[in-house]
Amino acid sequence: MDHGYRVHLANPAAIQQYEGLMYVDDQRDALWLANLLRLGILSEGYMYPKQERPIRDLLRKRSQ
Fold first, then answer.
1. Paired residues of 44 in beta bridges
2. What is the reported pTM?
3. What is the dihedral of CA 39, 44, 48, 54, to 10 degrees?
């Protein structure tokens, strides 16, 4: 993100594995995720901006 790239945080718990895959490796997983992103059905998580992360961490600590 610091270098201008668009970053997506995928939620692996919400992504159904494609059962027709015969080979599973990082390249095929990346292609599968890219296809989900292209179709607009990739379940993503929220990434806090850097300036808000200390506040989030403080709130988490206080809620414990």
1. 10
2. 0.67
3. -160
